[in-house]
Amino acid sequence: MTTEATRGAARRPVLTGRPSIGRPFLALPAVLFLLAFFVLPLLDNGLRSVVPADGQGLTAARYIQVLTDPFYLDSILQTVLLSGGVTLICALIGYPVAYYLVRHAGRLSSLIIFLLIAPLLTSIIMRTYGWQVLFARRGLINTWLVQDLGLIERPLRVLDTPGLVVASLVHVLVPFMVLSIAAVLQGVDRRLEESAQLLGASPWRTFLSVTLPLSLDGIGTGAILVFMVANGSFVTLVLLGGGLKTLPLLIYQQFNTTRDFGLASVMSTVLLAVALACLVLQLRLVRRSGA
């Protein structure tokens, strides 16, 4: 027996516990990529935002202009309200879908997931033009309502309204919310819900007291993802209009129309600050749930 044990020990690899010298170099391509295409552009953007037009010294005049001018403050407010509204609607729509997907879908779960991510498989340009084809003055919906069914006398004005912009963003971003919540709901211990019901709690009370609190992490993660993507949405607002003047639209105008790169850099930095605030919020939610 001693001989077999000795042979087994000889076949097992020897773990010295010393870190391999070459392992850090495995991350080198990713680090170089981030430095070249993320960190350096950010540093260049930040530098452009504080260098005056004559290139002499540094100035915070553009930041003061953006953070005090009512026009830019209104643009920041519209950006935050649009992102927040889309996030709230995605949460209200996404939670019931995620709950059904995890608890009741069964064999239909694969089909539901495919239907959820199907909008993401198409080009954003084609997807947005699809909304125009549907809701234009002489689009399919108005033709159907006015000419075919005769339900209304005049075509509905849906294009160039904030409601259509919100609907198109929700259509694209709700999968992020559903998948984030579903991932957390799958980890909820069903015995906790059964215990609550055995103690006399109704299904609704069990959901409010057990299921919903345990799934807040998924709601928080989904909310951060949706908010950050909606915060930087640009193509949808350009093609569908809606009369909104969000920061991404103003940045585009500064780069392509007025060509004021310094002011565009300032607005980009402000937009980045909003995104970083969302990341900090996410970290706080994760730490609180893990405590």
From TrEMBL:
Family named by the database record: Belongs to the binding-protein-dependent transport system permease family. CysTW subfamily.
Keyword Iron (UniProt): no
InterPro entries (alphabetical): MetI-like, MetI-like_sf
CDD domains: TM_PBP2
Residue ranges occupied by any ABC transmembrane type-1 domain in the UniProt entry: 76-282
Pfam families listed in its UniProt record: BPD_transp_1
Protein name per its UniProtKB record: ABC transporter permease
Keywords, alphabetical: Cell membrane, Membrane, Transmembrane, Transmembrane helix, Transport
Gene Ontology annotations of biological process type: transmembrane transport
Organism per entry: Methylobacterium currus
Annotated TM spans: 21-43, 76-101, 108-129, 164-185, 219-241, 261-281
Location of this chain's protein in the cell: Cell membrane
GO cellular component, one term: plasma membrane
Membrane topology designation: Multi-pass membrane protein
